Amino acid sequence: MDTVTPPARAIAQPSAPNPLEPAAVPAPAAPPSIHVRVVITWLAIFPLVAIGMITSAPLTENWHPIFRAMGLTMVVVPTAVYLVLPRLFAVHGFLAARRSTRP
């Protein structure tokens, strides 16, 4: 008569993370206050407007001021929103995180 041997115990090995389970993500930091956002936005807009006014002056000196403002804001606002502000907020987040981890 044949005897059936029980299966050998498997050695516990670390399992791979389950892609269906949510990963442990640290809680996001609190957004900056409205006052900090105003300062950061001003730091982005003011230099862009100043540089834009100086560089566009020779081309737009005969334009009506409304059209000058429209042309300038058509360049400054997208530049600030898509390029400058994300970088400034990232720097602020980095500095705030660094400040919060100090002993």
How is the secondary structure organized here?
Blueprint: H1 34-60, H2 65-100
Helix pairs in contact: 1-2
Fraction of residues in helices? 55-70%
Q: Could you tell me the mean pLDDT?
A: 85
| Cα radius of gyration in angstroms | 29 Å
Strand content: under 5%
Overall geometry: elongated
Number of DSSP strands? 0
Terminal Cα separation, in Å? 73 Å
Number of helices: 2
Order of helices and strands: HH
Oligomer: single chain
Which class of secondary structure composition applies to the elements? Answer: mainly alpha
Can you walk me through this structure?
This protein has two helices and no strands. With 103 residues, it is mainly alpha-helical. The chain has a domain at 34-98. Helix 1 (34-60) runs antiparallel to helix 2. It is elongated, with a radius of gyration of 29 Å.
Features of the shown structure:
elongated, 61% helix, mainly alpha
Could you give a quick summary of the protein structure above?
The protein is mostly helical and 103 residues long. Helix content is 61%, strand content 0%. Helix 1 packs antiparallel against helix 2.
